[in-house]
Specification:
Layout lengths: L29 E5 L2 H11 L6 H10 L6 E5 L5 H10 L7 E5 L5 E6 L11 H6 L1 H11 L5 H5 L3 H4 L2 H21 L6 E4 L3 H8 L5 H17 L5 E5 L12 E8 L2 E6 L1 H8 L5 E3 L15 H8 L25 H9 L4 H10 L2 E7 L12 E4 L7 H15 L5 H4 L33 H12 L2 H5 L3 H26 L2 E7 L10 E6 L5 H7 L3 E3 L10 E5 L3 H10 L5 E6 L13 H16 L5 E6 L5 H13 L5 E5 L2 E9 L16
Parallel strand pairs: 4-5, 4-10, 10-11, 13-14, 13-15, 15-16, 16-17, 17-18
Antiparallel strand pairs: 1-2, 2-3, 6-8, 6-9, 7-8, 12-19, 18-19
């Protein structure tokens, strides 16, 4: 048979009998993704009319397909699913079809809405639908009197500050617990006025009991103040608003959006100087001198609370920067001073935040932020569908979701689907194309600058030309240098890496504190697992779990045969959904990288695992051990395997390339 192509057709396999699908408990969130927008539409076309129960189709798309950057989520279920696929395939627009291109580097900030967004019945549909929401909501309400629950159905009560603020806090905390159960992990949190207490609580600064005490004191003491004063929104920069006695800046919401607060007559007199203003419907003049009578009593309550370090960075209303350690004095200033929300947004943007999720009863802050702004709920819209649409927008923007939690209890099963619509490309070498010629006018201008002939070529005064020529020379030099330096910038990014299916063979030695289930999982997948080794014994490899640098060094010095994998948990951060690396475990990776380079002839790999492995995670671990250390730095996550890659960093505009616009 040498040199011969031979084929034998045996017999087509019998079709597999698939039992009927169970009852549909699948959420109306069906993800699709592709490497291009064209392939995404083609995939939707292939899926139209697939002979599968809707919940099986949804489940299979969520769990059996890789996730690419061109994404769509169909906020649909049942018979509506095929119609939504048709809209996507045709490139149409529909409320049930959410599309976008993921930015895996953009960070996520969660924003908590402030007073004024409240509405009767807010959160009721979520309370009736989702036990996680109901449990968190009930936990908050348990710290307040029964009147709070009654206020959710009575507009006259809900608009009273003593009920408004606790009601908003309850809804926002319950919303956060709900989206957290679905895998939403913010990189930053912030709030507007009362919303910052929600942010501080979910960030771990305040226990639920202490947060409720702070909210209750704030709300009741404000309510007890004499009614009066006024608040007016003005479309103007903060610097253009000249204040008078008894009036303060209450909020700076944008570059040309401020709110003034204080004595009614004085506030209205200032507002009359501007063309575009709006008086706010409020019971009191918040963040103004009219709050002063409550501050001492409020401080007394705040001083009894326990403040913890923030587990999620909190952006401060008071400073607009990352909050310093919280104290009683901070919360007193928070009541009295301006809400510097615009500065906080600038801080978040500078930190790399590109996606904002607003948690509250309406989308208020979403109109004040750049990038992708996503309100979880909207006034006068179906709460469940609005929240699912928000999750869809998060996913297509690149935010990781926990699909296993979203699909918990679903009757969906994996079924065969049409294959991926690969886009074929031509790879023949083409003759080089001539480069475009630079604009002659532009070239001529800079030539005139270099020759010192601006006055002649531009027909301007000699003194003017002599004055600006050095500045032009300097600008061009800085611009060229900045562009050159920028093109040299690279960074490490974690990218998905497919692992070929495989099963480890031979004896694998497990060393250190082995997480529960690892030994059993490897044994079930073909490995002969042992926890001890004698000199001279033949083993296929070692999987070590060093707790710190000393243990890692001991493992490396043992010099056992076969590949060595140093395994950690939480040593590297592959994306937004991962917490910050744990320093002691990150040190193990530092040592391992050096050892892999210095100890030539040895196979040394680094492996970072999630806190727990599901069946797919155990499969990936087994496949990795079978594949060897060709990829010697790997992170396994619930969504797949990831490896580090060197990628070109984004060009950051240089200050040298243009005028300085920020304040000194």
């Amino acid at each position: 048979m040498s040199g011969t192509n031979a084929h034998v057709v045996l017999e087509q396999a019998e079709p597999v009998a698939v039992p009927p699908a169970g009852p549909d408990a699948t959420p109306p969130l069906v993800p699709l993704s592709a490497r291009s927008a064209t392939a995404l539409r083609a995939q939707a076309e292939r899926l139209r009319g697939v002979d599968a129960a809707p919940q099986d189709l949804a489940y299979s798309l969520a769990f059996t397909r890789a996730t690419h950057d061109h994404r769509a989520v169909l906020v649909a279920g049942g018979d509506e699913l095929d119609r939504a696929l048709g809209v996507l395939a045709d490139g149409g627009s529909d409320a049930a079809v959410v599309t976008g291109t993921a930015d895996r580097d953009a960070l996520l900030a969660v924003l908590f809405t402030g007073q004024g967004a409240q509405r009767v019945g807010m959160g009721r549909a979520l309370y009736n639908r989702f036990p996680v929401y109901a449990e968190a909501f009930d936990a908050v309400c348990a710290h307040f009197g029964p009147e709070l629950r009654a206020a959710f159905d009575d507009a006259s009560l809900l608009d009273r500050t003593e009920f408004t603020q606790p009601a908003l806090f309850a809804v926002e905390v319950a919303l956060f617990r709900l989206v957290s159960s679905w895998g939403v992990r913010p990189d930053f949190v912030a709030g507007h006025s009362i919303g910052e207490i929600s942010a501080a609580h979910v960030a771990g600064v305040l226990s639920l009991e202490d947060a409720c005490r702070l909210v209750a004191a704030r709300a009741s003491l404000m309510q007890a103040l004499p009614v009066g004063g006024a608040m007016v929104s003005i479309a103007a920069p903060e610097g253009d608003v000249e204040l008078s006695e008894g009036v303060s800046i209450a909020a700076v919401n944008g570059p040309e959006s401020v709110v003034i607060s204080g004595d009614e007559a004085a506030v209205l007199e200032i507002a009359a100087r501007f063309a575009k203003t709006k008086r706010l419907k409020v019971s009191h003049a918040f963040h103004s001198p009219l709050m002063d009578p409550m501050l001492d009593e409020f401080r007394a309550v705040a001083e009894t609370l326990t403040y913890h370090p923030a587990e999620i960075p909190v952006v401060s209303n008071v400073t607009g920067a990352l909050a310093e350690p919280f104290t009683a004095d901070y919360w007193v200033r928070h009541v009295r001073e301006a809400v510097r929300f615009a500065d906080g947004v600038s801080t978040l943007e500078a930190a790399g935040v590109g996606v904002f999720l607003e948690l509250g009863p309406d989308g208020v802050l979403s109109s004040l932020v750049p990038g992708t702004a996503i309100p979880a709920l909207r006034r006068d819209r179906d709460e469940e569908r609005t929240l699912f649409t928000a999750l869809a927008r998060l996913h297509v923007s690149g935010v990781d979701l926990d699909w296993a939690s979203l699909y918990a209890g679903s009757a969906g099963r994996a079924v065969p689907l049409p294959t991926y619509p690969f886009e074929h490309r031509r790879y023949w070498l083409e003759p080089a194309r001539p480069q475009p010629v630079a604009d002659s006018a532009d070239t001529g201008f800079w030539a005139a600058v270099d020759r010192g002939e601006l006055a002649r070529d531009l027909a301007v005064d000699d003194d003017l030309a002599a004055a600006i020529q050095p500045a032009l020379h300097a600008w061009r030099a800085r611009h060229r240098e900045a562009s050159t330096l920028g093109s040299w910038r690279y960074r490490v990014a974690w990218r998905p890496h497919p692992l070929p299916a495989g099963r480890p063979t031979g004896t694998w030695l497990l060393v250190g504190t082995v997480p529960a289930g690892i030994a059993e999982g490897l044994a079930e997948r073909g490995a002969d697992v042992r926890t001890s080794w004698s000199e001279g014994e033949d083993i296929a490899g070692t999987l070590a779990f060093p707790a710190d640098l000393d243990e890692a060094l001991t493992v490396l010095q043992a010099d056992r045969p076969g590949p060595l994998w140093l395994a950690t948990t939480g040593a590297v951060r592959t994306g937004r959904s991962d917490p910050a690396p744990e320093p002691a475990r990150a040190q193990v990776w530092g040592l391992g990288r050096v050892a892999a380079l210095e100890l030539t002839g040895r196979e040394i790999g680094l492996l970072d695992l999630p806190a727990a492995l599901d069946d797919r995670g155990h499969d990936r671990l087994a496949a990795l051990l079978a594949a060897g250390t060709g990829e010697d730095q790997v992170a396994l996550r619930p969504s797949g395997a990831f490896v580090p890659r060197l990628v070109r960093a984004r060009q950051v505009p240089s200050r040298a390339a243009g005028p300085r616009t920020e304040p000194c």
